[in-house]
Amino acid sequence: MANVFFVPKFIVTGDEALKTSMDYMKDFGKKALIVTDDMMVKLGNVEKLTTELDAAGIAYTIYSGINSEPSHSMIDKGIKIYKENDCDFLIGIGGGSPMDSAKAIGAVVANGGSICDYMGKKIEKELPPIVAIPTTAGTGSEATRVSIITNTDSGVKMLLSDVKLLASLAVIDPVFTMTAPPAVTANTGVDALCHALESYTSKKAFPMSKLYSLEAIKKIYQHLEVVYKDGSNVASRRAMAEASLEAGIAFSNASVSIIHGMSRPIGALFHVPHGLSNAMLLKVCLPYIREGAETELFELSKAIGVYEGDSVKDGADAFVATTNKLLDTLKIQTPADFGINKDEFLAQIPKMAKDGLASGSPGNCKNVPSEEKVQELYKGLWD
Ligand SMILES: NC(=O)c1ccc[n+]([C@@H]2O[C@H](COP(=O)([O-])OP(=O)(O)OC[C@H]3O[C@@H](n4cnc5c(N)ncnc54)[C@H](O)[C@@H]3O)[C@@H](O)[C@H]2O)c1
Ligand SMILES: [Fe+2]
Questions:
Q1: Å from CA of 191 to ligand 1 middle
Q2: Which residue puts its alpha carbon closest to atom 19 of ligand 1?
Q3: Which residues of the chain have pLDDT under 50?
Q4: 226 and 137, same domain (yes or no)
């Protein structure tokens, strides 16, 4: 079977990436809708962007209403502002939430209807150009054909996946991630780790996607602990921003699997941030992933330099042990630490298992899980 490899049209990386990106943005139109959150305005990240847009002669309107993981009503509001202000293209600046929102607004502007119509559907018409500027490392949304929006009426975190959701321009300037506090750094960093791990062990993986998964994994095991402990380390922030991009490219091509499939329902029902719900699940799901992909975990142990021998079992053991140690260092909250009521969580397990499997992601494991297995793994979060 042939493999098709997707990436954004342009990717600008490194110091001064924002300035350089203006050469490309000029071709996207006269006026941009900047989609962001209040924190980006407060930290001055939006001002860094508008200073460059002013210098390039590009007009803009700012919509800073994405102040949590995006809901369908936030997208509705963005569509209205885009149309009222006659915008030509979108710039999502922030973590995954503003970037995904920019994509979702663009999808509906071009195709009509409501964002809730698009779950699992093909997007027919091209979106206006989307510029994605990540400030977390991260979701990798800048490089993926994915947007995740919560339908707050049905309580489902909708996975929208279509090649038309790829950004036209991704701008990766490590300066934007420098202000991320330790908990955001840890949770979003583990999100990138899950993208790399799940794509590497996915049954859809192929040689080119695996290159990106591997490169991301190497950087994450070397630099995530460093930026968690010292957020001012520029070299490690840069490495994590690159790792997030690479992991995004990897999973946009080879898909995520059981961790992300089980994570979205926790986010939708208990309002746990995306990176954190993945991080909570990683320890519980890793032994299950191993059952179908022990050789891959052995390969990863070699890539991160924690095992030198020839035993597949010992290499996989070393990878699991190193990952668990990293999660302990990052002080990942448990569902109980986060304030979730155990009885309420247990009562929702049947719905979460159904919704998780319906997203299709768990089916990308080499050992496709049953509904009973997914339920058992959810229960494992409380052991
Ligand atoms: N499209 C994709 O491929 C993809 C992949 C994974 C996750 N997601 C989605 O992305 C969303 C989560 O994105 P996220 O984890 O980046 O979080 P986020 O965008 O929700 O941001 C989390 C918090 O961190 C703050 N923040 C962001 N950057 C900061 C910085 N540099 N300094 C200080 N504070 C900062 C934000 O203001 C916010 O309060 C979820 O909706 C998730 O489902 C999308
Ligand atoms: Fe993710």
A1: 10
A2: 95
A3: none
A4: no
Q: Which domain holds residue 139?
A: 10-177
Question: 299 vs 200, 245, 295, 305, CA distance in Å?
Answer: 10, 21, 6, 10
What digits encode the pLDDT tens for the residues 68-84? Answer: 899 999 999 999 999 99
Question: How wide is the angle at C-alpha 62 spanned by C-alphas 56 and 63, nearest 5°?
Answer: 150
Atom 10, ligand 1: which residue's CA is nearest? 96
| CA 157 – CA 25 distance, rounded (Å) | 31
Predicted pLDDT at 199: 98
Ligand 1 test: best mutation among 40, 71, 123, 136, most atoms within 8 Å of CB? 136
Residue 28: alpha-carbon gap to chain centroid: 25
Same-domain check for residues 27 and 164? yes
Rounded-to-integer distance, Cα 317 and Cα 340, Å: 31
pLDDT for 15 = 83
- Cβ of 277 less than 6 Å from ligand 1: no
User: So what's the pLDDT on residue 186?
Assistant: 98
Instruction: Give, using CA atoms, the residue closest to atom 16 of ligand 1.
Output: 95
